[in-house]
Structures are given as structure tokens and as C-alpha cells.
Design brief:
The complex is a heterodimer. By secondary structure, chain A is mainly alpha-helical. Chain A is 65% helix and 6% strand. Chain A has 12 helices and 4 strands, in the order αβαβααααααββαααα. In chain A, helix 1 runs antiparallel to helix 2, helix 8 packs across helix 9 and helix 8 crosses helix 12. The relative contact order of chain A is 0.10. In chain B, strand 3 and strand 4 form a beta hairpin. Classes of the chains: A mainly alpha, B alpha+beta.
Chain lengths: 288, 212
């Protein structure tokens, strides 16, 4: 009988201790998350980041887990509205203009560029891949210079290696043996990322006609990269240059799996979707 | 006395350690891999009709995704201000919209030797992240944010090419709630779902006409 009572006591105690343990986990989690949020918001530069977190919320979480002491599933009542998520607010003072440009580009896409890309798809995919590889190889100076500027020496070396391998073994850049055989992947770098890497904020959001979503920083970046394009130094007529850029873009569009159509179809407001995705994408690239 | 209590705690913990969920549960990668492998297997199964594929994938996704947590995080501050009825309605509509979205994706999907590589995992208490790369003609980094619920790691956010799905929805929906109110957002969601339904039916109709 006595043994039974002791055992019962033990079980009760266990219940108490483990629920206490659960609480401790919950607490330490809410506490440890905060610095991470702060540091990530600092990383994002000029984009204002609103972290929705209040001390009062902590009490609520505690109360919630108190209510379900002894239950295994203590995280069920966890508050997911705050904590490690931040709202990325994109500065967009010229929204009416941008929306106009977005509309314009949308029409261009559906009535001009996409039909061309669809027609272009009669060319077998491997051939279009080769065209894409060729232009990508020409983009090496941009990626090499910007890797160097960011002191990413390894990446710069990898880009140089890619240029040599793909220009020779890859027959003038038509193929990508550097990746297939030497595991040297392309390092996406551009001047916008370099600026971001040194703490330049994104400025405000701009949708350019034809060129699409950008911001002040990345627009400056585009100008910088323009002069690193080898085509710039080959003597040719402006029409020919535009034609080559068009071929490059149409090739990528023909290889793309209708990403934009998907966004248009699903998003409540495609403009807001693209705006946020662009900023997140660029921020992510800069942090890499 | 203190030491005894401490010893007691250790003893308890040793015996009833399984109560601590993090110890008993396999890693999020292991769990997610099972589901993703199954989904890929179903997608590749040429003997299944498209409807059967969609239904099977749907069951797996519903099991593995935490639509409530997703809704909470998407709405943020507006979740707290919403009435229970509005919250329930939002979860219903939002999960419906997400489902329609990936249904359309699957419908248009053609298998091209894609494979998933698991490249990393971080776990912090009851939350974690599984990093993968989808290798196709281009490498696409896809990460899954997971939370521990009971013994299951459930997905509450997907990050494709650095773009967090929840963060994206969050910024759009915040803007809509700010301008049109919570009920305005619900109306917009309802409209979108009707629109997608109509597109779905039209697509099915034309497929039947062609005898597919």
C-alpha cells in the first residue's frame, strides 16, 4: 500500500516537473528568438522592418501552456503571430507610376514577349539551353568583378575557372562542363548586390518599362554592370545590340515554366506579390 | 534537500524522458523526406489518373502542413484583432486558395528528372528548418520551416529562392486589410477561389472535348 502511494506521488511529481520543463522550453524559446530577430532586422538595411512582438504576449503563451499542463501537445496553443517573423515593408513612394508600368509590362509580356517565346519553343530545349549558356558565359565579367569587389575571392576564382573551362571544353560557352564535370556552379553576383553588401539600402521600389522590377540601388547597379558587358565593347549597331539582348531574354523566357502566369493566377494582387518577392529575393542574394 | 530534489528530477527524467517531445521524435528532415518522397512517387506514377494524383497529394499535404499556423503568421497583428469567426473563415479560405494553387501547379507539371537534395537542417526547440535543393535544369533552393506539434514536424512556411511564401502573403494581405478591412480580405479571397474554380472547370471541359 505504501509503495503504491509513493508510486502515485512519483507519477504526480513527474507530471509537474515535465510540465515545468515544457514551460522552461517555451520561455527560453521566446527569449532566445528576440536577438535573432533584431540582428536580422539590422541586416536588412534601409527596408524598415516591423517586428511584431510584445512583452505582453509572453504572458499569454505561459497562461496557455498552464491551461494544458500534462498534455503532450503543449505547442498547440503556441502563438504564431509573433516571434521570428518580420514584415518586410517596401518603400514605394511612386506606387501609382509603378502600377502603371507594371500594367504596361504585363501587356507586353502577354501580347509580345510570351507569344515569341512560345514560337521559339519549336527549337529543341537543349539548343535553347546552349544559347542561354552562351549568354551566361558572356556575363562572367560582371560576376567575376562583383565577386572581387565583395572580396569573395573563392567565388571570383570559380567564375574565372568557369570562363576558361566553358570557353574551351564547352565550345565557346555553348555547354556548361564546369558545372557538370567540375562542380563549379555559377555565382550570381551583380553590382546591386555589391552595393548592398557594403550597406547601401535598397532605396525605393521602381518598375522600369521592359526591364521590370528594381529599386534605386539595383538600378545604379544595372548601369554599372552595363559597362562590364563584353558586347558593349564590340563594334555593332544599336539595333544589333538590342537584338542580342532580346534573344538572350527570349531564350530565358522560353525555358521558364510560366512562373509569371502562376503568380497572376494565384495572387490577390500580383503587383504586391511581385514587389515583395523582388525585395525578399534581392535581400536574400545580398546576404549570401 | 535540494540535491535530492535534483536527483529525483534526473530519475524522473530518465524514466519519463519520452514526455519531452524533442527527444522522442525523429529529425524534421527524416519526417519531411518521407512525405516528399511519397509525393514525388505519386507524381511519377503514370498509372494514376490526374484526379487520383491530386487527391492523394492533397491528403499528404494536409497531413504535413499546418494551415492554422500559416494563417496566424500570415495575418500577424490582424490575427489577434480578428474575431474567432473571422479567423476560422480565413483559415478555411486561405487553405483552399493554397490547395487550388498547388493543384494547378501539379496539373501543369511534367516530370523532368527533378530530384530533391537535402542540404541542411536547423532545430531550435520546437521550431526548425529543413533546407533542400530541387535539382532540375536549374538548381532551386527550397527550405521548409517546421514546428513540432505532438510528435509531428509540421510545415508552416516554404522559402523558394530566398522568398518566404508566408512573408509574401503577409505583406500583400496586410496591405489589403489596411485598405479594405478584414472582411474586405475575406471577400477578395472568396472571389479568387471562385475565379480559380471557374478556370479549373473550363480546363476540365476542354480536356474532355479533346478526349483526353
Amino acid at each position: 500500500m505504501r509503495r503504491f502511494i509513493v508510486f502515485a506521488l512519483l507519477v504526480m511529481l513527474t507530471g509537474l516537473l515535465t510540465s515545468g520543463h515544457a514551460l522552461a522550453v517555451e520561455d527560453s524559446l521566446s527569449v532566445t528568438e528576440d536577438p535573432a530577430v533584431e540582428s536580422s532586422s539590422a541586416d536588412l538595411g534601409e527596408n524598415s522592418v516591423v517586428v511584431e512582438d510584445s512583452a505582453g504576449e509572453l504572458g499569454e503563451v505561459e497562461a496557455a501552456s498552464d491551461a494544458i499542463v500534462g498534455e503532450e501537445d503543449f505547442t498547440d496553443e503556441e502563438d504564431f503571430t509573433n516571434g521570428d517573423i518580420e514584415t518586410l515593408t517596401v518603400f514605394d513612394p511612386i506606387e501609382p507610376f509603378n502600377r502603371g508600368m507594371f500594367w504596361f509590362n504585363d501587356k507586353l509580356y502577354f501580347y509580345l514577349f510570351k507569344p515569341i517565346a512560345r514560337g521559339y519553343r519549336v527549337v529543341p530545349e537543349p539548343a535553347r539551353e546552349s544559347v542561354s549558356n552562351f549568354f551566361s558565359n558572356l556575363g562572367t565579367p560582371v560576376r567575376f568583378a562583383n565577386s572581387l569587389l565583395q572580396l569573395k575571392i573563392g567565388d571570383a576564382g570559380s567564375e574565372l575557372g568557369r570562363l576558361i573551362i566553358n570557353s574551351t571544353l564547352g565550345i565557346g560557352g555553348l555547354f556548361d562542363p564546369a558545372k557538370a564535370w567540375f562542380d563549379l556552379g555559377r555565382k550570381e553576383e551583380d553590382f546591386g548586390q555589391t552595393l548592398g553588401n557594403y550597406g547601401v539600402g535598397s532605396g525605393f521600389y521602381i518598375v522600369w518599362p521592359l526591364l521590370g522590377p528594381s529599386n534605386t540601388r539595383d538600378s545604379v547597379g544595372m548601369v554599372g554592370d552595363f559597362f562590364l558587358d563584353p558586347l558593349h565593347y564590340i563594334d555593332m549597331k544599336p539595333v544589333e545590340r538590342v537584338g542580342l539582348v532580346g534573344l538572350d531574354k527570349e531564350t530565358d523566357l522560353s525555358l521558364d515554366k510560366d512562373t509569371y502566369e502562376g503568380i497572376k493566377q494565384d495572387a490577390l494582387d500580383p503587383y504586391l506579390f511581385v514587389r515583395n518577392a523582388y525585395e525578399q529575393y534581392r535581400d536574400g542574394k545580398i546576404k549570401k | 534537500m535540494k540535491i535530492r530534489k535534483y536527483l529525483m528530477f534526473i530519475l524522473m527524467f530518465a524514466i519519463f524522458g519520452w514526455v519531452n517531445p524533442a527527444m522522442a521524435v525523429p529529425s524534421p528532415t527524416a519526417q519531411l523526406r518521407v512525405t516528399l518522397d511519397k509525393i514525388v512517387e505519386v507524381l511519377r506514377n503514370k498509372e494514376l489518373s490526374q484526379d487520383a494524383i491530386l487527391d492523394q497529394v492533397n491528403v499528404m499535404v494536409r497531413d504535413k502542413f499546418d494551415f492554422e499556423a500559416m494563417s496566424q503568421r500570415t495575418l500577424g497583428i490582424h490575427w489577434r484583432n480578428a474575431t474567432p469567426k473571422q479567423r476560422a473563415r480565413f483559415i478555411e479560405l486561405f487553405s483552399q486558395l493554397l490547395e487550388d494553387t498547388y493543384r494547378i501547379r501539379i496539373r501543369n507539371y511534367t516530370y523532368q528528372n527533378e530530384r530533391v537534395e537535402y542540404v541542411g537542417e536547423t532545430v531550435q526547440g520546437t521550431r526548425g528548418q529543413v533546407d533542400t535543393i530541387v535539382v532540375a535544369n536549374k538548381d532551386i533552393p527550397v527550405s521548409y520551416r517546421v514546428r513540432l506539434k505532438g510528435k509531428e514536424w509540421l510545415v508552416y512556411d516554404v522559402i523558394v529562392e530566398e522568398v518566404s511564401l508566408v512573408n509574401n502573403y503577409r505583406s500583400s494581405y496586410n496591405e489589403i486589410v489596411r485598405k479594405e478591412g478584414f472582411d474586405g480580405l475575406l471577400t477578395r479571397l472568396e472571389e479568387k477561389i471562385r475565379e480559380l474554380d471557374a478556370a479549373k472547370k473550363a480546363a476540365k471541359g476542354s480536356a474532355k472535348k479533346q478526349g483526353v
